[in-house]
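Try this one yourself first.
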């Protein structure tokens, strides 16, 4: 020890702080351990030793060092904040709040304690209190950009995006090069529906902090939502290079590349996803699984891994909301809710509009719709709003949306979105209704503890698949998909007007490009090679997908001009194009859903191959209930053989068309009133079971 121990200790503490900032945890721990033998009464030295131990993952030793620091320096704000942070990381926000409130009593108005207290309240989902706490801290330190960002986050969670934006703008005035401020600006702009501006904010955050993978990832998500898929794929790739174990970046990159028909790395990405799921890595987005060759057990494991942190993170808020479900009068109609982002000009809206109208006509249920997207002003939205009670919850944060649903007294709530755009996971995990059902949402098990039932049928979910579903199973006696009749179709256009040759068989696949993987495309090309003069009509894809498919066709010895692409059209003109199609070809591992129903309604035969998962069996269910099982192939080879056989047999195709034309008037497949009666019976059965205190069970209707 030198003649000036205080100076020596100060120099030592400064050296330790520097090592910790450099994340040189091992060197810091060794130096602190030696030094504590000399300066055993220094609380700050014990605190820094504790931080080094925590950074090394030696949590028990680190916590012991911090508690010793609290004994040596009971008034140390830093020690109390460190201990509170440990409690937060252990998932004990209330313990952190209690500790910080004691520290605040010792140092009233201390901005550091107030900030830590606000962060702990955010973790405990006490957003109103967090907002007030951050505001108090900001009064003590008005030029602190981090506090403005904290306050903005609290306002965002409360659903006040205008105030959140104001605080982010203030932070940017104080620190224009702070990447976290630009990132939060992206969150707020996205919440306000300004996706393009949000993307630019995250790209700026990435420019300022190029080594932070979250900025590239969030920019990619916004570009993805805006339809700028080539830019999105590049940004997902940057995020994955920075964070190779990131499940979200990996799965979204793989899915986006499929949408773009960029298959050069597809096998590698698929293998990496499989390894990630098997290893239990979090964040693999469920919708990306549907186009991958994964079996049901692996899909269930993936979605359960995905939903677990959602359930954990929202558990405090669910306890805080503490919803109760009073029993209605026994003779009161069961109140049923449907929540979706598709109540407009959307496949879901078109599918359920006739059902909702039929339910209103027959009575027996009190139907409420909850729209998570804004009114698009279209005829479907007007039909839905005119048939029943429609609640707009698109501007509400999840907690507010859950409160709005719960306030209506809904007993059975159907989720019609699942894990796609504007996922309802955060909403339904708060349990706004006592019974919650997945239907027309994620085509497979939700893997979610907040979903009680899945509505299906015996084809998409046969008894042999039961073990791979976390929910209780409700099986309709008809196809689970309501194939409602559209308005009268406009006249069919000419072949020339659609870019089709005047002669030759027209095969078509109007499923999204992302569902046409390399194996499916190879089967399509084999069919074209064997049916002379035929063409394949595909839906135009994003980015340069069409050119990539043409190049791949040429590589498989099929002239590029034999691929014709259908541009985006309004629904009725799109349906009219089926009159020019001789045979629709389906995809796997995800089959067509609304496109399959559209084809059959328009009188166009559809060939499918029943897959091994829910997502791969929808078209098979439609054909089964259309009494056309011969159009469901046993395997890929059978699919190609049947397509070639039908392509060479116009008489058989004409017979299928004649059969399908008769279905419009007499088939249960297009019987909306019959579907509504079965749907009502399902709701009344499970709702009544709940009213009398019986748990969910599997039921076949």
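Now uncover the answer:
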């Amino acid at each position: 020890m030198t003649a000036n121990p205080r100076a020596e200790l100060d120099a030592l503490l400064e050296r330790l702080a520097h090592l910790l900032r450099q994340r040189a945890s091992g060197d810091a721990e060794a130096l602190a351990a030696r030094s504590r033998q000399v300066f055993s009464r220094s609380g700050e030295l014990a605190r820094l030793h504790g931080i080094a131990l925590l950074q090394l993952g030696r949590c028990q030793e680190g916590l012991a060092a911090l508690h010793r620091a609290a004994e040596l320096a009971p008034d140390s704000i830093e020690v109390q904040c460190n201990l509170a942070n440990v409690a937060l990381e252990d998932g004990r926000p209330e313990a952190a709040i209690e500790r910080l409130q004691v520290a605040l009593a010792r140092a009233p108005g201390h901005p550091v304690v107030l900030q830590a207290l606000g962060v702990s309240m955010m973790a405990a989902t006490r957003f109103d209190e967090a907002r007030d706490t951050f505001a108090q801290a900001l009064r003590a330190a008005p030029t602190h950009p981090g506090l403005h960002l904290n306050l903005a986050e609290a306002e965002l969670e409360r659903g006040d995006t205008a105030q959140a934006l104001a605080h982010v703008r203030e932070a940017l005035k104080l620190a224009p090069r702070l990447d976290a401020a630009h990132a939060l600006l992206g969150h707020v702009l996205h919440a306000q529906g300004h996706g393009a501006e949000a993307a630019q904010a995250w790209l700026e955050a990435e420019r300022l902090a190029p080594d932070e993978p979250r900025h590239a990832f969030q920019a990619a998500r916004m570009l993805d939502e805006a339809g700028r898929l080539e830019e999105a794929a590049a940004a997902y790739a940057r995020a994955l290079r920075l964070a190779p174990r990131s499940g979200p970046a990996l799965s979204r990159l793989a899915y986006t590349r499929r949408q773009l028909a960029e298959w050069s790395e597809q096998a590698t990405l698929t293998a990496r996803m499989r390894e990630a799921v098997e290893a239990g890595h979090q964040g693999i987005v469920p919708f990306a699984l549907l186009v991958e060759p994964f079996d049901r057990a692996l899909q269930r494991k993936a979605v359960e891994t995905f939903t677990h942190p959602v359930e954990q993170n929202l558990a405090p808020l669910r306890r805080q909301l503490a919803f109760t479900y009073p029993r209605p009068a026994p003779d009161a109609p069961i109140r049923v809710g449907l929540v979706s982002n598709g109540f407009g000009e959307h496949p879901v809206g078109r599918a359920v509009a006739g059902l909702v109208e039929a339910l209103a006509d027959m009575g027996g249920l009190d139907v409420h719709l909850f729209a998570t997207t804004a009114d698009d002003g279209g005829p479907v939205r007007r039909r839905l709003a005119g048939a029943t009670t429609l609640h707009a919850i698109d501007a509400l944060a999840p907690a507010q949306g859950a409160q709005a649903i719960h306030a209506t007294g809904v007993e059975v709530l159907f989720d019609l979105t699942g894990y796609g755009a504007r996922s309802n996971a955060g909403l339904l995990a708060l349990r706004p209704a006592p019974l919650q059902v997945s239907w027309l949402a994620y085509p497979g098990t939700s893997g979610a503890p907040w979903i009680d039932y899945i509505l299906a049928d015996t084809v998409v979910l046969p008894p042999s698949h039961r073990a791979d579903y976390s929910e209780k199973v409700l099986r309709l006696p008809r196809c689970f998909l309501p194939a409602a009749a559209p308005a009268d179709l406009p006249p069919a256009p000419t072949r020339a007007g659609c870019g089709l040759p005047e002669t030759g068989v027209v095969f078509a696949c109007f499923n999204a490009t992302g569902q046409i993987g390399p194996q499916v495309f190879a089967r399509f090309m084999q069919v074209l090679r064997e049916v002379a003069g035929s063409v394949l009509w595909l839906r135009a894809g994003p980015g340069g997908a069409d050119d990539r498919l043409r190049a791949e066709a040429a590589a498989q010895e099929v002239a590029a001009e034999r691929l014709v692409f259908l541009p985006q059209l309004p629904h009725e003109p799109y349906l009219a194009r089926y009159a020019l199609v001789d045979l629709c070809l389906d995809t796997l591992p995800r089959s067509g859903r609304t496109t399959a129903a559209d084809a059959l309604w328009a009188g166009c035969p559809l060939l499918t191959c029943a897959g091994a998962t829910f997502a791969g069996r929808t078209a098979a269910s439609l054909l089964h209930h259309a009494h056309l099982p011969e159009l469901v192939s046993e395997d890929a080879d059978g699919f190609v053989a049947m397509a070639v056989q039908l392509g060479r047999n116009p008489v058989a195709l004409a017979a299928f068309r004649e059969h399908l034309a008769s279905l419009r008037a007499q088939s249960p497949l297009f019987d909306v009133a019959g579907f509504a009666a079965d749907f009502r019976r399902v709701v009344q059965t499970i709702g009544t079971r709940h009213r009398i205190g019986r748990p969910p069970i599997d039921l076949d209707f």
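Discussion: The chain has 30 helices and 14 strands. Residues 289 and 658 are 37 Å apart (CA to CA).
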